Amino acid sequence: MNFRQTSGIYIDLNTKNIRAKSNLYYQFGNNREGTNVSALLADADIMLKTGKICPGMGFSYLSGNKNLNGKTDHLFDVLYGARHRFFGHMDYFRNISSHTRGGGLVDLYVYLNLKASNKINIKNTGHFFSLAQHNNLTPDSKYLGYENELKFNYRFDDWGNLEAAWLFYLTTDSFEQLQNINNPGFPQFVYVSLSVNTNIFKAIDR
Question: Looking at the domain 4-196, which fold is it?
């Protein structure tokens, strides 16, 4: 059996005018093949609280391998459910190892959050993706494209919330080579989600 360990530090700052967070994590131990692991994840996010319109920006960096046949594996593995929570909601980079061919990932993003009312919130996020490292399996260009996410959220009551979104991706030649895609066209995704919160049991003071 081979064991991989992850250790790091997380910082969260929340003031009247700024919301910021950052973390730095280091992975060590061994991967599935028994190769020594030495990998890094770093990210940061900052948002300005300016009233109804709140701009923000951030980045995520996952180290990759320059030499796939080296004695040390430098590819950071995000593990478990985190594969679907970050790096764009179109899920093109849910498996960092295969979807970047061991090159790792850099996600630079900017967003604008608009609170139209107490019940309506609109947020647009733009992701600029690139490889963290070149190796013999990656394309010459590191730039992997742009993903845009426009989300509309309507909380019509304490017990109900409606969310709708339109997401699209602008590909590059490097992205198409990594993902083995020919003639990708215009990748886009639309969804509508209704969430209902109910109390099955309610405590009653007598």
Answer: Porin (2.40.160)
